[in-house]
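Hi X.,

You mentioned you wanted examples for the new student's onboarding notes, showing what a folding record looks like when two proteins sit in one file. Here is a clean example. The first protein comes first, with its sequence line followed by its structure tokens.
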Amino acid sequence: MSLEITNENDEKVSVKIKGVPLQYANALRRICLNGVPVYAVESIDMLENSSVLADEGVAHRVGLIPLKTDLSASKDGNENDKIMLTLDSGFSDETRTILSGELKSQDESVVPTSNDIPIVTLAPGQSIKFEAYARLGKGTEHARWNSANVVTLTDTEKDDEKLLTVESTGALNPKHIILSSVEQLSSKLSEFKTIMSEIK
């Protein structure tokens, strides 16, 4: 088995995989897409909302904003740990769009991957204020926790070689997604082997 990085940047990485059965390579692809834990907003306490968008609509939009995730600094990766992000638009005499960059996080390592994602447009005199709670989760639970936008597995011109390409949401470095996925796949296979050995 061999892995060779052929192309890498902050958003995407491509890796040549050789000597790996198709079912294992495809399992790795699926884990890369929705099996690596990342932070996402799970719930919101709405304190004030005079916009035209219902509380549920605001919660849905905020929940889908990708958040940068540093697993090494996330309290041992405990999925029950929550991080609060707040937003208080205040009032304005002009129409304006509230963007993701206005979210204030209690943890400087867990912030939106972009400051320019629209949340809601406020008319003059309207305001919005809420507390949002983010936690670690996996995309198998909900798409908001997907660590990657797109993950593809294609054949190359060489026999027994495939190309795995991972495009990150920005929450994690794409190379980290692959490395974490390899570790998880190895752990799952080890657990499966243990279970099978205990069957009489």
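Then the second protein repeats the pattern, sequence line and then tokens:
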Amino acid sequence: MRLIENWFSERYSDNLQLSFRVKDQLLSIKTDYQRIDLFDTYDFGKLLSIDGTVQLTERDEYIYHEMITMLPYYFNTKPETALIIGGGDGGAAKRLLKLNFKNIVNAEIDRNVVEVSRKYFPEIASSFDDKRVKLIIGDGIKYIKNSNEKFDRIIIDSTDPVGPAEGLFSKEFYNDIKNHLTDGGIAVTQSGSPYYQEKALSLAYKGLSGVFSNVKTYLAFIPTYPSGLWSFTMASERAFKIRDENVINGTYFNKDILAGSFYLPEFVKKIII
């Protein structure tokens, strides 16, 4: 991350970065786990950065949160319960509430992410005030090891596979996830930019494939993430089948996206071979 002359820049490589013109820096703190920065930008509103990488902006957060929740919702059995690992901004929980989930557990390791989100993104983090959401401040890896609960959907809403999120891309963790899914349940994780983060996608896909019988990667366009092309990978013991019911449109998500997101460019297919 660099802030020069009122520009925040996320560096993708030694030779490329994406910059946002900034009105003001609203917050900068170092927690026990990571660095959190918050900016007020001209084009994307408030922008939350963790360890120098964009996590969400007011303008386009809906794309990520719809795609990690709404797309897997329509496969296999109709879900009612979910576990979110990460997701301290409340965006994933908000979308699940709109899908009428009855019970949501959200395990976030860094209390500061929740507090910052409550203050600066109240329209998103207000999901934590809903009685259907149980917020746990703690390590999601430890939670899943010590819990006996089973869930219809497990959503791994993590940062990149470094630091506190590194263990969320391991085969051991995916085994634990599998053991906490109901019959026909689905796990889904963000798996990075296929263009700039091949390792993240490869780790997620191959790790899940070593544990689950059925694994699929799908894509979305997210303007403020590296290259704009972002991947998600979902896994289940049951073959994936779209349920026969009306698809509710989001702001990004619709019936065409539900089907078309699985059509992958050739270079992405080669990453997950």
